[in-house]
Amino acid sequence: MFRQMVTLALLAGLGCSAAPRMALPAPAQDIDPGKVKGRQKAVLAGGCFWCTEAVFEAVAGVEKVVSGYSGGDLASATYEMVGSGRTKHAESIEVTYDPAKISYGRILQIFFAVAHDPTQLNRQGPDYGPQYRSAIFCANEDEKRVAAGYIAQLEQAKAFSGKIVTELAPLKAFYPAEDYHQDFVKRNPNHPYVVVNSSPKVAKLRKEFPALLKP
User: Fold this and answer.
1) Is residue 48 helix, strand or coil?
2) Which of 14, 42, 127, 159 is geometrically suited to a Cys-Cys bond with 95, CB 3.0 to 4.6 A?
3) Is 48 a catalytic residue?
4) 63-79 pLDDT, tens per residue?
5) DSSP-based three-state secondary structure for 166
6) Segments making up each domain of the chain, as ranges
């Protein structure tokens, strides 16, 4: 299925997220890497998973990114089901990372700074519906503490012109998306949706976080 309103995005330039009013600070709270064992996973939702996947695949310390679905009630999910808006799932990514190289807090900083616009309610750029909502699915109390603290920190700093609407929810399950969605930006760099919506976010990452990029 083709992405919603791609033509409108091309004409109106709706692909890029609204810029924060300031360079976002690192989270004041974070998870101590010495207190976690092995690789960790973060599950985030910020609109089209093609876009968020492409951003985090370029980040040093991130070993794998899978596009999928999370946050719904049903015990399974497909693109058609989620696209209907009736399952309560959101397009999400599962980020597997090495906490010795990048922290959970730093991942959230990138998520808020360049991966999406956390002030857009149930939409992201040209895509509309609850399946495109901004959400952080927390696997434990440490993730919840860091995420809630960072949102409060950004709100207090008035980092965005609008209110942050990012949902914090417990991680119940993550369902990988169909194979044709995985690595979509890498495989389709000239796709119109990618050119307008995904590539500018990766370019923004490279500009704002050059020290955090993979070689």
Assistant:
1) coil
2) 42
3) yes
4) 999 999 999 988 888 99
5) coil
6) 36-209
